[in-house]
Write a structure and sequence with these properties.
The chain has one domain: 3-Layer(aba) Sandwich (Rossmann fold). Helices cover about 30% and strands about 30% of the residues. The protein contains seven helices and ten strands. The protein has helices spanning about 50-60, 80-85, 100-110, 120-125, 140-155, 170-190, 200-205, and strands at about 5-20, 20-35, 40-45, 65-70, 75, 90, 160-165, 190-195, 210-215, 215-220. α3 (about 100-110) packs parallel to α5 and α5 (about 140-155) packs parallel to α6 (about 170-190). The radius of gyration is 18 Å and the shape is globular. The structure holds adenosine-5'-triphosphate (ATP) and magnesium ion. The site of magnesium ion has 3 residues, from α1.
Length: about 220
């Protein structure tokens, strides 16, 4: 067993404003999770159950209230935040590209690594045709934008990918492309992946281990 990512006793509450008073809402309650190196775990759960919140805690876009999150056995708070975000990439439901060309977008992540990464090869790996490299990223289709976001995450040489409904804003054809792409990348790069989806069919297709977030904890999903 090679535990790569581990959440122990993690709790997280949010404060919601209701009629001008702040109400504390417990989103995650003493949640535990162990993910092996190279494993793909799918997370389902009702809207509002805390799936996005859970992912955001893992690369410290948000902070846990209590418990601990370990990456390679080390508390994620002991990593330099930039290093953590490179190791733990995130792909969002709605892709957001930076200003400029596709090439500019990919180069953004690669700058961190100097010149030793081949931008064309990276585009190819993320199924971005070479003739799109100099296109304005803002003008791409949503599916193409999502592939740019995936390539940008890959440029950081991540160990973990957090995928927050990465295909749900795409049309059926693009969704299938992106799903296939992510599965291939996960295999080829031995990525540890947490994949949030609300589509039962997708969960059954992509993953051997499906969890459901319910009442603040992860339960095994039974089809
Ligand atoms: N910054 C915030 N301020 C207030 N409430 C928040 C904040 N972030 C999340 N919430 C609330 O926390 C709960 C969990 O939200 P979260 O986005 O994690 O759910 P989700 O499972 O990802 O839902 P969905 O399937 O709709 O994406 C929701 O009730 C949401 O309204
Ligand atoms: Mg969400």
């Amino acid at each position: 067993m090679n535990v790569h990512l581990e959440l122990k006793n993690v709790s997280k509450a949010i404060l919601r404003k209701v009629n001008n008073t702040r109400v504390k809402i417990q989103i995650l309650s003493n949640l535990d999770l162990q993910v092996q190196k190279g494993e793909l775990v799918t997370v389902m759960g009702a809207s509002g159950s805390g799936k996005t919140t859970l992912l955001r805690l893992i690369n410290r876009l948000s902070e846990i209230d209590s418990g601990i999150i370990l990456l390679n056995g080390k508390d994620i708070r002991d990593y330099d935040p930039m290093e953590l975000r490179r190791k733990v990439g995130m792909v969002f439901q709605v892709p957001v590209v930076f200003k400029g060309s596709v090439r500019d977008n990919l180069a953004f992540g690669m700058r961190l690594w100097g010149d030793d990464m081949d931008l064309e090869a990276l585009a190819l790996e993320a199924a971005i045709p070479g003739n799109l490299l100099d296109a304005d990223a803002g003008q791409l289709s949503v599916g193409e934008k999502q592939r740019v976001c995936i390539a940008r995450a890959l440029a950081n040489r991540p160990e973990v990918l957090l995928l927050d409904e990465p295909t749900s804003s795409l049309d059926a054809v693009s969704a299938e492309k992106v799903e296939t792409l992510l599965l291939r990348l996960g295999r080829e790069r031995n990525l540890t992946m947490l994949w949030v989806t609300h589509e039962r069919e997708q969960a059954l297709r992509i993953s051997g281990r499906i969890l459901t977030l319910k009442d603040g904890r992860l339960e095994e999903y039974h089809a």
